[in-house]
User: Fold this.
Amino acid sequence: MSSKNVAVVGATGLVGNHMLRVLEERDFPIASIKLLASERSRGRKLEFRGETIPVEVLAENSFAGVEIAIFSAGGGTSKQFAPCAAKNGCVVVDNSSAWRMDPKVPLVVPEVNAKDVEWHEGIIANPNCSTIQMVVVLKPLHDAAKVERVVVSTYQAVSGAGIKALNELEAQTRAVLEGKAPACEVFPHPIAFNCIPQIPQSDAFIDNGYSTEEMKMVNETKKIIGDDAIRVTATTVRVPVHTGHSESVNVETKTKLTAEQARAILAKAPGVVVQDDLPNQVYPLATDSAGKGETFVGRIREDISHPSALDMWIVSDNLLKGAALNAVQIAELL
Assistant:
């Protein structure tokens, strides 16, 4: 790969920090790098490849000479600044939900639909974290037996809501253990020792009773796999876990797959690690997935209530494969 002039937008955030780490660890070919953030980060400096780099305040003229910009700064920022970058000849890989369902914008998971990168018009969308880890597992099963319906319940880590949410979990945990009332600022209810069936934490629900996070999984799955006929229903839940989203997934296929066949298919799937040895209590755990780029799947079994369905448990680091790593992989495709 030839070296590129790169910008990271939202570099001081939780995912932005992970993007810098992934770029460094994967030895991405960088000729120059710009670190961009909001006015709140003015004067900050970050380390990258042994150098101390000042963070610049994001502006419409920030992208002169930049070839690839990786955004992780929220939908409003992406809506405002991604078109500016694209007009300057820069290709944007955007981690927000702003462009995901735009028919002119590819929504890409490299293990699933890498070729969709080819029809971009300056912006490529990074999918929702929960969708990414699910479709990495679904696609090889779809290719083998045609997935017809998916029922998914997620158990999503607090880090998916940002650094303030992590701080709130830690503060609430200490408060509860000390016999004090936990204070809620980020979440609508205490997250310590609790599960909250509402993601995001505000303005979550729409008229059909689903949350916006749940509908992201429904719509994004169809777009990434390229099959609008797949029926998807989701329930998304925030749990008091630091890092690593977990998912209970029921998959109905047109052609029956045995659990053994599914394990064999997934063992060969790119980016997937099968952990399924019940006698030895081996199955995916959020704590084990943290810091790793793969998607882990286990508890694969045939659904006793349906003649052609499988149940499985899927786990991945939401900050890596669910965000930073997938974005960098897209940049590598470019």
